Amino acid sequence: MSKTKSILLSALWTVIILAFPISSGIIATVFKLEQTSIFLAQGTFMIVAAIVPIAYIKIKKQQFYDYGFRFTEKASAKKVWFYIPLALIIIPRLVVGIDFKSVTYCLSLLFFTLCVGITEEIYFRGIILNLIKNSFTSITAIINLSALIFGLGHIASVIGTGDIIATILQIINAYFFGIVSTETLLLTKSIYPLMAFHFIYNTANYISTANGTTEIICIGVQVALTVITAVIFGINIKNSLKNEVDLSDG
Predict the structure, then answer these.
(1) Is the pTM for the entire model greater than 0.70?
(2) Cα separations (Å) of 189 from 34, 76, 82, 120, 242?
(3) Structure confidence at residue 73 (pLDDT)
(4) Of 7-11, 102-106, 139-143, 162-166, where does mean pLDDT reach its minimum?
(5) What does the buried/exposed string (b/e) look like for 148-168 if buried means 16 or more CB atoms within 10 Å of the residue's CB?
(6) Rounded CA gap, 188 and 237, in Å?
(7) CA–CA distance, 128 with 83 (Å, rounded to integer)
(8) Contact residues for 48 (Cβ-Cβ < 8 A; gap 6+)
(9) pLDDT tens digit string along 15-39?
(10) Could you give the CA distance from residue 245 to residue 170 in angstroms, rounded to a whole number?
(11) Which string of DSSP letters, residue by residue, matches 190-240?
């Protein structure tokens, strides 16, 4: 597959997944749904969205294993420090305060964020990353293209949601989130930890009481921690590739 075709197909898959939250958002607006109902509607739409790539893999008679549907081995988990850096990225949003609001709110939120975490990882680190990996040989290009597509796919969800500085930081954060997630998959070969990380990350953002200046500071710290994590994981990827080359030469 040509590089141009893989990018165009990646863009198409991004449009497909965006169509579902946009549709649920329109329904929520038209029917003036309350927040818990919005979470339930959005979560349900994301479940439906997940059917599309799963059906695609089945129709193509491909192995789910090749898309990251496999458990992480201990040696692979060690390469990402057993996911401790990922956990640290989540902390800034929580230390400022947590508001669970109500049991109903929390349950509907957990349903929504779980569905989003699973579905977005299937699309972005499953289907789209696989398309890019099959067309590009440079690890740097694979990581950056995957992160760029993920970042662009999240611009619509953050624009107009608050302060301009917070919005810009969120877009930057989405890009580096994409880098770290792609690096994690390249190191561990498993999409399951990313689904869990994505789920917890989104949940932490929703229940955090950070707003205004506090939110900007939190996002800024998250960006810094994400960049540091990206560098660490990037070094691990280079070392892994170097070891593979040394073994093949030996």
Answers:
(1) yes
(2) 39, 8, 14, 17, 17
(3) 87
(4) 162-166
(5) ebbbbbbeeebeeeeeeebbe
(6) 10
(7) 23
(8) 20
(9) 999 999 999 999 999 999 999 999 9
(10) 37
(11) -SHHHHHHHHHHHHHHHHB---THHHHHHHHHHHHHHHHHHHHHHHHHHHH
